[in-house]
Here is the input.
Amino acid sequence: MLTRWTVENFKPICGPVTLELTGITAFAGLNSSGKSSVLQSILLLSQTLANQILDRALILNGGLVRLGTFDSVHNDQTEDGFIKIGFELSNARSLSREQGRFNNSSVYRYRGLVDSLKGIKVAATFSRCRQTRSGRGNRRS
Here is the structure.
């Protein structure tokens, strides 16, 4: 289960901002306070992790969300040249019980490892594309 989400330097979020998530989480706040930006950061990371193109570290424009360029999503109030997105998963034991329903021998091979996990923490930092000598950078990000 997704239990924590962290965002820094993304759109209006200067951060770092860490949100504790539960079974049901509601976002409430004033206009332009970052509610949609949190959801967009989740979609952005999902679309990036599903990417099969290894030379594109951050997929800003894809099937889930279209955000433009790095400069359009980077918080302009900070001098830091990066965007950081992180998350934490917990309750790995319930995941292994769900996987145990499948008749795949590889699931059972790793079941002991999954049972011993208490959680997974991931943090990714993305910075603006650097230009090459020819002036061509990774413009697709």
Notes: The two ends are 29 Å apart (CA to CA). Strands lie at 2-8, 17-20, 82-90, 119-127.
